[in-house]
Amino acid sequence: PAKNSWQQEARGSCRTRVRRLVQASRHRRSLAKAVLSTTSNKNSLPVVVVVVVVLVLVLVLPLLIFLLLVFVIFRLLIFLILLILAVLVVVVLGQCIVISPSVPSRA
After folding, report:
1. 8 A C-beta contact, residue 51 and residue 39
2. Mean pLDDT on 47-70
3. How many CA atoms lie within 13 A of 87 on its CB side?
């Protein structure tokens, strides 16, 4: 039960992160438009450079964090799948071991 609730929390947090990323991208577009309108009026290069650097950082960092989270989730999923497969193999082998001694006793 604890694992399931943890998985649900992980899925929920993923959804909220995606929503936040979408909202942030919309916010960034409006920011970029505002910055372009101000810089085209003033024609100041240092401000443009600073704004570009900030935009790149703001765009790249969430993507990196998101990719790291995706990798962690994929590792957990692979681990869970391997666990399930191991349990299935053990169950099947256990049934075979239980069935095989009972065959000669029937005969």
Report:
1. yes
2. 85
3. 6
